Amino acid sequence: MNNELARVFSELAAAYKKQSALNDEMAKLFARAAELCGNIPAQIHGNEQTVESLQDIIFDASNGDVTAILKLKKLAKENNQAKSSLENLYYDGKKKNAVGTLVLRDGLKYIENGEFNGFRNITKVVLPESLVGIGNNAFQSCISLEDVYFPQTLTSIGSYAFQECKNLKQINLPDSLKSIGERAFENCTNLKEVVLPKGLTEISNGAFQNCSGLPKIEIPDSVTSIGNSAFDGCTNLKEVKLPKGLTSISPWIFGSCSSLPKIKIPDSVTLIGNSAFDGCTNLKEVVLPDSVTLIGWNAFEGCTNLTSVTCSEKTQNLIGGILNYDTITWNIIN
Q1: For 53-107, what is each residue's pLDDT tens digit?
Q2: Are strands 179-180 and 110-111 parallel, antiparallel or unpaired?
Q3: What residues have CB less than 8 Å from 249, skipping those under 6 apart?
Q4: Taking the C-alpha atoms of 100, 106, 111 and 112 in order, what is their torsion angle to the nearest 10 degrees?
Q5: Of 44, 75, 91, which residue is a domain's last?
């Protein structure tokens, strides 16, 4: 890569830091970069690139294509030229046309509310190790997003942050995370795996509501609060582990989880909220602790296949009128 092209890349990066949208100066720089591609050899440090393909990369980058921008950065870095932060070009005025992988710059601590809302063509997001918080609606409706790298510095995910990311397949959340905001992953219908960290304390209302592809959830013992409808509508959910320190089962927490066959309530729980398991039509077995003192209206409404309840005699007296299905076998423990 010749020195002039390296200089053009550097000037582009500098121009973008001053101006968020494409202007005449940047357009000229992109045009000059494309022209200079004619002087680049067909093979650069083992990377075979034809003049035409390099010109295509330049053109795509000028239209906000994140993948093309990152290719420019990679080529420049391999030739020890133009090492400026070209990934910052995703702040182009045409950023919603970004395609492919979105790599956010090192040093970024917080993603503002709605920053990447509606980026329909990004498939992967790599968050920097400096990141502490993700704002509300930050990646909402990124409908092509399949994979997100969460850094070990992250402490909070805002409300609706990844709502409607229907192609998101798995999330592995870092040990640093403390809270998941309201409806953060709601309607992520292709989500197949969720790994919750040991340091997590709060899962807010509707955080995973309607994640209909999710088969299993293990909630760490560090969690003390799980909001209303947190897993409501997770119709493929077959296995649930609740935290030992949980004191209440919120309303609609597992409503309409129609594949769930069994639930064991932790010994710390005193309250089961209204409609907590309403519509769990495949629920066959429930284990209730002696600590439960109150069960809300319709807590087990529509659990028509319930056949086994394990509890103390005191708990049976408490809920016998609620669980009045003729099919139930009561397993009384002392």
Answers
A1: 555 555 565 555 556 655 655 555 444 333 333 333 334 433 556 678 888 888 8
A2: unpaired
A3: 226, 242, 265, 269, 271, 272, 273, 276
A4: -110
A5: 91
**Are 11 and 31 spatial neighbours (Cβ–Cβ below 8 Å)?**
no
Both 181 and 103 in one domain: the answer is yes
Q: Specify the DSSP class assigned to residue 46.
A: T
Range of the domain at 19: 3-91
The answer on 200 and 227 residing in a single domain is no
Q: Are residues 257 and 171 in the same domain?
A: no
Which pTM was predicted? 0.73
Q: With residue 66 as reference, give the H or E element that holds it.
A: helix 66-78
43 and 150 part of one domain:
no
Q: Which long-range contacts (CB under 8 A, 24 or more apart) does 88-91 make?
A: 88/13, 88/16, 88/17, 89/12, 89/13, 89/16, 89/61, 89/64, 90/64, 90/66, 91/16, 91/20
| Interatomic CA distance for residues 14 and 88, integer angstroms | 10
Q: Are 207 and 228 in contact (CB under 8 A)?
A: no
Contact 177, 156 (CB under 8 A): yes
* Tens-place pLDDT, residues 207-262: 999 999 999 999 999 999 999 999 999 999 999 999 999 999 999 999 999 999 99
Q: How many domains does the chain have?
A: 3
- Same domain for 122 and 152, yes or no, is yes
CATH number at residue 231: 3.80.10.10
